[in-house]
Amino acid sequence: MIHASCRQNFTSTTFLAPLQLRISDTGEAITKGQLQDMLAGRQVDIFVHGYRNEFEGAANAYNTLSTQLDGKGMTDSARIGFFWPGSWARVGFSMAVARAKRAGLELAELIDYLKLAGCKVTVETHSLGARVALCALKEGPSVDCLILTAPAVDYDSLALSGEFQNAVYKAGKFTVMHSKRDSVLKFAYRALNWFTPALGLVGPESPKPLRVAVRDMTAVVDNHGAYKDVDAVFDPSYWRA
Q1: In 3-state terms, the chain is what percent helix, strand and coil (to 5)?
Q2: Which terminal CB of the chain, N or C, has fewer other CB atoms within 10 Å?
Q3: Pairing mode, if any, of strands 2-7 and 16-23?
Q4: What pLDDT, on the 0 to 100 scale, is given for residue 208?
Q5: CATH of domain 2-239
Q6: 78 — phi, psi (to 5°)?
Q7: Quick one: which of 160, 150, 130, 162 has its CA closest to 215?
Q8: In the chain, where the domains are located
């Protein structure tokens, strides 16, 4: 796996930095040009973590995601774990939202380099990572597939006149997965967002955008972090154009 980070010194949970790349197994730094040479023409899956993730925890979660994809027969893809400074403190959510927008610019740059190298790109996000990816796509590059699990953005953000309405048209396949049993989004998100429900709790506002596939995962996802361990999340029809 390749690690891509816009965290200061690669691992900071608070401070942003320009995009850095390294090979996860060896820690060897690589340039964007080397990345293009390594992955030219390949399927690339990018993982984007959510709020309050220390580096090692996010890296372990990415390894779990990669193993799950292998188990579904998607062994031909390259994997990139994207790290952004999503805060270390419970009270830092509003600042993390602001950093997510800036981190989205770094993710957009990464996607641009991959698309220029002829790659097919799938982006999978969790929680506030949805804002990073949606900010990246809003005015930037397109991807082949976008999967938002437990997205910590407002339920009406994909609607006409919504904050991310433009991003809806930047993914060949666009999938939202939500669960009504997600207590983090049910209580904490609403408390921090003037009682506005999260997309990852109730799904998109009706009428939902026609290009967005909505998957109600309430029956199989009983907490905010459960998606990476749920077999149904890794159906290849979501992950491949």
Answers
A1: 40, 25, 35
A2: C
A3: antiparallel
A4: 87
A5: 3.40.50.1820
A6: -90, 150
A7: 150
A8: 2-239
By the 10 Å C-beta count (0-12 exposed, 13-18 middle, 19+ buried), 1 is classed as middle
Mean pLDDT in order along the chain per 10 residues (241 residues): 98 96 97 98 98 95 98 97 86 85 97 98 98 95 98 96 95 98 92 87 92 97 96 97 93
32 Cβ partners below 8 Å, 6+ apart?
Answer: 19, 21, 113
Beta strands 212-216 and 171-178 are parallel
Q: Which of 176, 178, 181, 177 is nearest to 223 (CA)?
A: 181
Tokens of 100: 């997510």
- Residues linked to residue 124 through DSSP beta bridges, in sequence order: 47, 147
- Phi/psi of residue 130, nearest 5 degrees: -60, -40
